[in-house]
């Protein structure tokens, strides 16, 4: 699945401007965008997801135009069929695990019953080993379980690709390693393309098949090796 991105967006606040410029093409199933805090990574992810409209440019995924300034195309987030995994997972606190996953189903289940027994929900509960906590609320889960619920909710919508914003930042270091290994395995098994933004070199090492560098709003496709980043100070 080829992703083609060529976009520009300027944001202004309190007399300060920030311009995002990104231009790259990738056939990789595992793209990592690496950069410091404030470099513009979240802006790029939001633009891909349809949560931020660029000023100009074009975004194409698998031959389908998601955004095209010249063509006046700007698909709504749900039309893009991309799953967005937020840094803090953004689970619904008043819904149990089963209901949170049901919320992700295509067509949107706005008010899923507490004992929702949809086949897809059952599948992801089983696949992500959440059966035992299906009736629990998000604040009754461990960090790793919360992340699995967020992934299950994202995958229940059968997305074309996964967008991940610092997926391990909210976890303690020991759990981080374990969840990286879990995501690694899951991605390989499902064969779903993913794009991950991070400032953590360990994420680069684990997922950076195609590594891009974000610096002060500019995306640099250095094709720099993962080893190169790992040896940076
Ligand atoms: N609504 C806005 N108006 C003006 N500037 C903004 C706005 N939102 C973000 N910015 C600026 O854009 C820049 C990039 O922000 P962004 O959140 O994309 O960075 P990031 O690389 O994802 O950082 P982090 O890793 O800390 O999340 C920052 O300098 C930020 O201050």
From TrEMBL:
GO molecular function, one term: ATP binding
Record flagged with keyword Cell membrane: yes
Keyword Cell membrane listed: yes
Domain ABC transporter: start-end pairs: 2-232
Alphabetized PROSITE patterns for the sequence: ABC_TRANSPORTER_1, ABC_TRANSPORTER_2, SIGMA54_INTERACT_1
Sorted UniProt keywords: ATP-binding, Cell membrane, Membrane, Nucleotide-binding, Transport
Pfam families in the record: ABC_tran
Stated name of the protein: ATP-binding cassette domain-containing protein
Organism: Duganella qianjiadongensis
């Amino acid at each position: 699945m080829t992703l083609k991105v060529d976009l520009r967006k300027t944001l202004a606040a309190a007399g300060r401007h920030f311009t995002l410029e990104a231009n790259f093409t990738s056939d990789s199933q595992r793209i990592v965008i690496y950069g410091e805090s404030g470099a513009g990574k979240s802006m790029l992810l939001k633009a891909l997801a349809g949560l931020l409209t660029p000023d100009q440019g074009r975004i194409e995924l698998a031959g389908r135009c998601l955004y095209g300034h010249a063509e006046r195309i700007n698909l709504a987030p749900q039309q893009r069929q991309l799953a967005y995994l937020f840094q803090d997972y953004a689970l619904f606190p008043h819904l149990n695990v089963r209901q949170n996953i049901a919320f992700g189903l295509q067509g949107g289940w706005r008010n899923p019953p507490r004992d929702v027994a949809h086949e897809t929900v059952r599948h992801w509960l089983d696949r992500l080993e959440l059966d035992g906590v299906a009736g629990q609320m998000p604040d009754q889960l461990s960090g790793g379980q919360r992340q699995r619920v967020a992934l299950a909710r994202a995958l229940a919508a059968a997305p074309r690709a996964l967008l991940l914003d610092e997926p391990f930042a909210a976890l303690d270091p020991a759990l981080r390693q374990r969840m990286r290994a879990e995501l690694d395995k899951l991605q390989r098994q499902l064969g779903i393309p993913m794009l991950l933004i991070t400032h953590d070199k360990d994420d680069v090492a684990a997922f950076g098949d195609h590594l891009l560098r974000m610096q002060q709003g500019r995306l640099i496709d250095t094709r720099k090796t993962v080893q190169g980043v790992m040896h940076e100070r």
